[in-house]
Amino acid sequence: MSEWWTYSLSDFLMFSSRSYYRLIESYNAAIWPAHLLALVAGVIVIGAIARPHQHLQRSAALMLAATWGWVAWAYHLEHYAEINTAAPYFAAAFAAQALLLCWLAYRPANAANAAPAPQHLALGLSGLAILAYPLLALARDGGQWRQAEVFGIVPDPTVVATLGMLLAWRAPVIFWLVPVLWCLVSGATLMELKIGHAWLLPALALTAVLAAMMVSKKPRDLNSTINPRS
Amino acid sequence: MPPTSPSRRHLLASMIAASGGLALSPLLAAAPPAPLLTRPIPSNGEQLPVIGLGSWITFNVGRDPQGRRESVDVMRQFFAGGGRLVDSSPMYGSAQDVIGEAVQALKPARLFSADKVWVSGGARGVAQVEASRKLWRVPRFDLLQVHNLLSSEEHLPILLAMKREGRLRYVGITTSEGRRHAEIEKIMASQPIDFVQISYNALDRDVEQRILPLARERKIGVIVNRPFRQGDLTQALAGKPLPGWAADIGCTTWAQALLKFIVSHPAVTCAIPATSSVAHVRENLLAGTGRMPDETLRKRIAQDVERLA
Known about the structure:
The complex is a heterodimer. Chain A has one domain. Chain A contains 11 helices and no strands. Chain A has helices spanning 9-12, 17-31, 34-50, 54-77, 87-106, 108-111, 119-132, 136-139, 155-169, 177-192, 200-216. By secondary structure, chain B is an alpha/beta fold. Chain B is built from 13 helices and 9 strands. In chain B, strand 1 and strand 2 (47-49) form a beta hairpin. The longest helix of chain B is centred in the first third of the chain and has 16 residues, at 65-80. The radius of gyration of chain B is 19 Å and the shape is globular. The interface between A and B is medium-sized, with 21 and 26 residues.
């Protein structure tokens, strides 16, 4: 398979921004009003970061797992695969992340620790993903609200909200792999599509990763309220 | 009733296009003022229009009904304007199925179907070709090309055997954006292929050095992809006034000038601009009509594009 090195990212971009956002539009129309359920899940995630409590956090992790599973099946496999031959691989990665998040929900002691996390930044990331991300559709040239990218429905805001939660919980590296890789893949795709906010997703991922690295160097505080067992 | 004169037909076409009534009379609206020029396929002399139709990105619209309707309209306009060669690949997502839908709806009498094989392994290639043929809804392909030389050592013997058995008319290889030209040359020099598909435009002219002369020498047809650098070239030239030479060769837009530059090269058989716009198809087809630039003007076009883009 020595031929593969000859391809560049632009060779794998097989669709136009028009087709991409039309796909999101038709997908949104097909699954409405699932968006309302996703919003409820999003509020639980924000609540779990703002008021850390074991049951709430477990619920939030399960909600996130459900959204990753939903996006894997409903978005990647059932819709995105129509225009992107790599979508089944994305679906597999999202399904794997859903399983990891289930594990996180039931093994919180392994995933979280007692050191203080940058809670405001975590809240900011998740809040941005859940409340502000859909508005990007209106900021884009020719964008419409029907093409809004909603948390729990499409990948990008789902991933950003997850980064916020992983940061708040100081989750181990394994939980970060798929979300960060997705930010790179999606950011590169949007860049090839010449979408104005293509930089946003990689920038948010970088912010979250840097914050997590900085926090990981701080001494642990056993009395932190972030500890899900406190 | 007297026959419609070309000028009147052109006027009527403009009126219909201006009124958005393309669906009323696509044949009339599509009619170019002069016949679409053709070039012989070097291996057997069959004439092929110099403007073809690519499908990379533009026809990959998934199940979107509007996108599919627009794609059918583009192909309707293309055939009505005298176009024949439509090019696709299994790599282009839903494009093959979209083309097949248009082929089924339009039943073009003179379609020249050009597809590719893009998979590792010869056996898988055979299965992929059959799957592609079903998507296209054609009894057989006119041309099959090894996409970006992927597993070419396995696919080429199979495709050449298909040609010998009458299950395929032409065999080719493809590359794009200047990749793997050394290997392309090697295959051109050693294999009995009918076509090579390469990227070539007023800025990317590397192929003028070796590949285009070799194609002439070996009697291999040349299909040119990415004539506008995926739209970047026309975008860079947008708003820049056309130089005086444009009128001399009947060009009213940069896109036409860029296409005329390509198809006027003596080694080039056809260019395959891709578009999702009916207006652009018409514009592209016009580039295949009328006067073509000579070698001196071709050099000037390249210089001007280099200066302005």
